Amino acid sequence: MDQRRQKPNDLRFIKAEHVIRSSFIHLIAEKGFEDLSVTDIVTHAEIGRGTFYLHYKDKHDLLHTFEKELTADMQEIIRSIQTTGIAAVGEITIRLFTYFEDHILTMQALFGEKGDFGFRNRIKEMVWYDEFSRIFAQGIREKGSSVPVEYLASYIESSIHSLFLTWLKKEKRESPEEITGIILELMLTAMRPAGSGSP
């Protein structure tokens, strides 16, 4: 994720930004978002409260920054794919899970049981449903499903989000390519028209 609040050429600001963000993620995983405070963050980061407030108003402002960055990064991945149909779904899924793997500690903290429920729901709605699931639904429709896109997208959103959370919890996770294969097989099998053969 980009640190979009950096001040150019200010190494002290950049260093403080890094320790604030890394401490925040560590403390969510350790204490949970609801129970952590600005005092916890500055103590763990070994900075003064004044330094923290140069960067963020409070912990919610900090979480919102992660939310904006994650949403923008995921949307950029999804919208950068030029192909369509199931081929696009496969490519997007691999790239998304590669991104998640590259930021795995952040993902596990923010989307884990100790993260913020509202954050998870907003990402689920803005990205999984509005962006990814509709592309996936269109791809499945092209494979012969007669289910309306809106229902497909809603089903896919819930299923993909649950699979994503399960994958995050695993100690030995599948590679982006492996989890993509699992997702495609599950979705295409579930949406296969009754009485049909292989998708």
Brief write-up:
The chain is mainly α and 199 residues long. The protein is built from 9 helices and no strands.
Structure description:
The structure is a single chain. The protein has 199 residues and is an all-alpha fold. It folds into 2 domains: 11-60, Homeodomain-like (Arc Repressor Mutant, subunit A, Orthogonal Bundle); 71-190, no CATH class. 73% of the residues lie in helices and 0% in strands. The protein has 9 helices and no strands. It has helices spanning 11-31, 38-45, 49-55, 59-79, 85-102, 104-111, 117-142, 149-169, 176-190. Helix 1 (11-31) crosses helix 6. The mean pLDDT is 87.
Shape category: elongated
Report on the biggest sheet: none
Give the amount of beta strand, in percent.
under 5%
Q: How many E strands? A: 0
Number of helices: 9
Ranges where pLDDT stays below 50 over 5 or more residues in a row are none
Helix fraction bin: over 70%
Q: What is the end-to-end distance?
A: 36 Å
Secondary-structure-based class equals mainly alpha
Give, in order, the helices and strands.
Answer: HHHHHHHHH
Integer average pLDDT: 87
Radius of gyration: 19 Å
Count of discrete domains: 2
InterPro entries: Homeodomain-like_sf, HTH-type_Tx_Regulator, HTH_TetR, TetR_C_Firmicutes
Keywords: DNA-binding
DNA-binding region: 37-56
Protein name: HTH tetR-type domain-containing protein
